Amino acid sequence: MNDLTQTPEMLIAMMGAKARRAAAEMALASSAQKGEALVAAARALRDATAKIILANRIDMERGAANGLSSAMLDRLRLDEKRVAAVADAVEQVASLEDPVGKLIDETVRPNGLKLSRVRVPLGVIGIIYESRPNVTADAAALGLGSGNAVILRGGSEAVESNRAIHAAMVKGITEAGLPADAVQFVPTTDRAVVGAMLRAVGLIDIIVPRGGKSLVARVQEEARVPVLAHLDGICHTYVHAAADPQMARDIVVNAKMRRTGICGAMETLLIDRAFPEREALVTALLDARCEVRGDEAVRKLDPRVEPAEDGDWDTEYLDSILSARVVDGLDEALAHIASHGSHHTDAIVTNDESVAEQFLARCDSAIVMWNASTQFADGGEFGLGAEIGISTGRMHARGPVALEGLTTYKWVVRGSGQTRV
Amino acid sequence: MNDLTQTPEMLIAMMGAKARRAAAEMALASSAQKGEALVAAARALRDATAKIILANRIDMERGAANGLSSAMLDRLRLDEKRVAAVADAVEQVASLEDPVGKLIDETVRPNGLKLSRVRVPLGVIGIIYESRPNVTADAAALGLGSGNAVILRGGSEAVESNRAIHAAMVKGITEAGLPADAVQFVPTTDRAVVGAMLRAVGLIDIIVPRGGKSLVARVQEEARVPVLAHLDGICHTYVHAAADPQMARDIVVNAKMRRTGICGAMETLLIDRAFPEREALVTALLDARCEVRGDEAVRKLDPRVEPAEDGDWDTEYLDSILSARVVDGLDEALAHIASHGSHHTDAIVTNDESVAEQFLARCDSAIVMWNASTQFADGGEFGLGAEIGISTGRMHARGPVALEGLTTYKWVVRGSGQTRV
């Protein structure tokens, strides 16, 4: 790794080969051993708090000198409380159920062959992420907890913080007798390494991008390795004619305003023309300091509503802005979501169970909700303990992806000398 | 479709849009309706037997004129018996369990949210295949049975046969009240259409190539849409020291010689140096008219053994040829498989259960077997009824892929007005 003449491809080939060997060991590690490693890693992180904060200070100073925005600097910043939270999150993964070795199903064939499908780790996971240094620990912990090897490629702004966190994770892993190469950190900030990772078919089994839209878009565009991600979270809430007005207001204001910057935040409100309290709904949002961009029918409800333009229906604001339109019934609501949604999370508010069940069946999104805020679209809220990301793809894993999503299965066949006729 | 100025991209965009609409309808079809459609399609195939054979005759004559090999002509040929078998296979899919709507798991969160994961169809499946016209019916039936829409792109050699089979399938589907566009056949043999399908992200959800290695390699190389396939089936059998000699001979001869042209056929035999009846094992293969290419140790067992060259260990012969080497124990056998295998199917023969379980855990293949012939690697033999293909990838579905592998899941969240804190 000290050879500066090394190409990005050579670097990734070398790291990938090490990761593959480590993955083979990790696949055989017991749940207890993986748990031990996670607890040891959390301890090592706590022990290294001062070192990590010192490393982070270098990143912060360089970031400030390079003119990073205050929002970016805040994302980058680590203090004692944040390091403690990072360590707690790692330790928490140890308490999750280990998916590896789980029997999916089994059957005995008429010829006596015993077949079973057993969960096994995916193999080698590549994580490409931006400024938040906690991803180094989070992603490593989830990879470790599911018996995989991970290759971490963090943003250049956080390189010192990431290195310090990585060193602590590795200390914990090796203390528990697991291979150091199970968690590797790309030692260079050369951007060409990202391209090499994206093309590393056979070396890396899956790529998880964590960061802004431009990162995810580049990864989805260039990757030859399968990608687990979502590009957009254009989430809808459809307030049906038979919605409880108070519930509708509470859900809609929460779905939009609780945290506007998360992918599960509602971006478009669809109001049924037959819903009697349309006006109060829009007023509640405006009163909560949400900018509402509406179609003509919505604009009639409150003079503060701005006119929506065509692009608004396809925009993920991640801000206190909402697009809103009036629709004529369930079919029009579903058609709007099918045209403009991003297959992330969409919700209906109604007291009519049969309409709700139709919505849940017909809305083709990773997460469909009835009478709940789209802000619940989160691995933690779903009881998965943590998530590596939310997938809007249809293959492999959909919605919040946690430990199970980082596994695959193998077919195990036990015979007694059977030959095929 | 009659507009000859249409580009391949426009054609696939149009077919994809129709398929998407049909897929939305198919996703809501009941099991009974899908079953009815399959039974009706089988009936329509039987009723159209004469037409199909006539169409096939045109393909056969053109094929003969174009100098197709007798093996290829045989693959292409349809007679009454073969059409009946095609219809039976379609009907059989109706008897399989419908995976759509199946509950994977459910949980109630402390805040009262009810979460469930429910199986839903993948969406639109693109099938790219070569000369066997039965794939038209098989793939359509599996797509239909799992609630998907399919776009079929068959080889030019079989175009008339495929058209006739497709017409019968559509007749059955519409008789059952399902949309004709659920099974579409690409109406041109322009090869550029394959490229357009491979790049149709968002229009086609998954591509399944069915055919020879060069087709699969092209698809895997060019596709931007996820691909479900295997390139090679370099399957190993490791005969351990504690193998029953007679069982080892029976399994090994069957794994290699029962049908040499299938992907589950054994291509490499690994014989433990401590297995006493090494010689009889190799002799049995040679006596079964198998060419054996061995390392030095194997060559000493029988003078008829040819010397293996380096490339032999990475060759899928699909013929009565076998590479064979002597290994020193389980670790060396596993290391050989890790270096040269294709993650398809690998087997151990032994009476030592603890060694067998180590092999099953450590061998990183889609299918791992103990005391059975690798020729069992097949959806039908696994009780899946039929298979769309065998996947050696790690994502989504692994090994034989049948109805369940053509589905994904959605998260369904039922609340009573919950908002997130």
Protein model, in words:
Chain A is of the alpha/beta class. Chain A has two domains: 234 residues, Aldehyde Dehydrogenase, Chain A, domain 1; 147 residues, Aldehyde Dehydrogenase, Chain A, domain 2, CATH 3.40.309. Chain A has 14 helices and 16 strands. In chain A, strands 10-9-11-8-7-12-13 form a seven-stranded parallel sheet, sandwiched between helices. In chain A, helix 6 runs parallel beside helix 7. The radius of gyration of chain A is 24 Å and the shape is globular. The model of chain A has no long low-confidence stretch (mean pLDDT 95). At the A-B interface, helix 1, helix 10, helix 14, strand 13 and strand 16 of A face helix 1, helix 10, helix 14, strand 13 and strand 16 of B.
Summarize the structure.
Two copies of one chain form a homodimer. By secondary structure, chain A is of the alpha/beta class.
Q: What's the CATH superfamily of the largest domain in chain A, by name?
A: Aldehyde Dehydrogenase, Chain A, domain 1
The separation of the N and C termini of chain A measures: 54 Å
Oligomeric status: homodimer
As laid out across the biggest beta sheet of chain A, the strand order is 10-9-11-8-7-12-13
Looking at CATH, which topology of the largest domain in chain A would you report? Aldehyde Dehydrogenase, Chain A, domain 1
| DSSP helical segment count of chain A | 14
The portion of residues assigned to helices of chain A is 40-55%
- Average pLDDT figure of chain A: 95
Name of the top-level CATH class of the largest domain in chain A: Alpha Beta
